[in-house]
Amino acid sequence: MEGHVAVRPPEKRLHYLNAAYDWRSWLFTLDHKRIAILYLVSLTLMFFVGGIAALLFRLHLLTPGGSLVQPQTYNKLFSAHGLVMVFFFLIPSIPAVFGNFLVPMMIGARDLAFPVINLLSWYLYVLGAILMLVATLYVGVDTGWTLYAPYTTDYAFGPVALALLAILLAGFSSILTGLNFVVTIHKLRAPGLTWFRLPLFIWAQYATGLIQILATPVLAILLITLILDRSFGVGIYDPRLGGDPVLMQRLFWFYSHPAVYIMVLPAQGVISELVPAFARRPIFGYHFIAFSSLMIAVVGFFVWDHHLFTTTQSAYAGLLFSLLSFLVAIPSSIKVFNWTATLYKGSVRLTTPMLYALGFIGLFTIGGLTGLHLAATGFDLHVHDTYFVVAHFHYIMVGGSVTAYLGALHFWWPKMTGRLYPEVWGKTAAVLLFIGFNLTFFPHFVMGYLGMPRRYATYWEEYQVWHVLSTAGSTILGAGYLLPFVYLFWSLKRGPRADANPWRATGLEWQTPSPPPTHNFDRTPIVTTGAYAYSPEADELEELHLRVERARTELARARAAIAIYHAAHPEEWEQPRPARAAGEHD
Ligand code: CU1
């Protein structure tokens, strides 16, 4: 083995992903980061199930008579889409994946306050998800995701009890997650991390936690009484037994409107992190954003009735809830204003996460503004139960929440996996999704305004052009969602390695290696400043440091090369240079 130089492999750094490999270490893990990954995998699966259902009925709607499935199957497809997407993707999405991963990291803690309850939340979710898949795919539920009586109390409508039980399980998962976050944020903040030094994502998770704890039990009561009604004919909601189906709607929206904020608040929290990081400025109006999250959590409880403007109730009730619904738009408008003010005069970097953030601001604003249309009782009467509502809802839920979810995924992916993804593909997917989304859902506004009712398997010919545009958009949207799935998966093995802070972002989570060690921080961080200490001066200083570092490396490399050369040619070192001949050039 002469001439062979033994090369020692670089010492392997242990982190939360490679600390243990066997399946037990994953399925019984109490590490909040691993539980976040478990959620990421299961949510991705549910997202694609819900998405495929949507693509199928979108294809069906290509022609006025319906070209793909029987009307009964159509009902089952849109119900499956709504039930899976709302209860098993949107409601858990950002809290379950990024809340789990980031809440302890952002506040400098080792884990959540109750790690065992955290794992229990995931198991409740999985059990619920399996039941929901059996109910919607194997047999088929055709009540719509809103579960209105008398569909849900009537045995003609599929295995509804199974679906109700599935949602009940997911609901308890949601309550326990919210409880865990609220207690963690109260009790486990690092020394010096006062409430007004918290990242706004934490404020958003805190407000979301309050809603999850207070609103979701109402859903649980509704689901249990619905099961009683259906199975034992108690007659609470079933009109044939003297029950009141509108009461069912009231209870449903008393949960489900606050639930809209369970889906939106964390998304807004993500945007409040992305915008300052890529505008390289401190966020504008920190306190306003923090308090507007709390205001949404409170006022969101008093607007449920805007879903019942067309039921029998006094004109006074309509007026009151119209006013309250206008009120709840204020805190969201404050946020949009403050994000825009942060962008103003910022040195904006158009990275993949930033494209999602900008997309969010635009789409969420359209969703919010059309929400004001619907809060006006007169206009609501005209577009009630039309595609206009479907469009509004999807601009908030997909244009808002899903866009923010993908922005978060691309922002924290290097932290979670230690790998970078190709920016070109990231940006391509973000642009493709923006185009696909608008092409799918903007026509919904138009045909809804023109009178196309929602949830019908067939329609009049005059609406076909809008349906064709929408179906074309949905195929782009489908391809757009597949793309990140492919290149992110690819990056796990082939992506370049990420350092601790590839975006040069503030926030405690960026101060520990990527991926983080199981215990998160080697030393408990001590916080002395507020979040978002971005400044152009600091960036310039950082850039100078990098340049000096690079120059030093170059210099060291050149010195080493000279030394090697001299070692190989000692004679040149010893002898004086020969005199240059006349006329010779270098
Ligand atoms: Cu609502």
Descriptive overview:
- The chain is mainly α.
- It is built from 17 helices and no strands.
- Helix 8 packs across helix 13.
- The longest helix has 35 residues.
- The site of copper (I) ion (CU1) has 5 residues, from helix 8.
Alpha plus pi helix count: 17
Helix content: 55-70%
CA radius of gyration: 28 Å
Spell the H/E element sequence: HHHHHHHHHHHHHHHHH
Q: Which structural class should the secondary elements be placed in?
A: mainly alpha
Please state the average pLDDT score: 93
Q: What characteristic shape results from the CA principal axes? A: globular
Compounds present? copper (I) ion
* Terminal CA distance: 43 Å
User: How many E strands?
Assistant: 0
Assembly classification: single chain
User: Major β-sheet, in short?
Assistant: none
Low-confidence stretches: none
Strand content: under 5%
Write out key terms for the chains shown:
mainly alpha; 586 residues; 67% helix; 17 helices; binds copper (I) ion
List the helices and strands and how they pair.
Layout lengths: L22 H5 L4 H29 L10 H20 L2 H14 L8 H25 L20 H28 L12 H33 L12 H35 L6 H14 L15 H29 L8 H24 L1 H7 L3 H31 L5 H28 L13 H31 L41 H33 L1 H5 L12
The structure holds copper (I) ion (CU1).
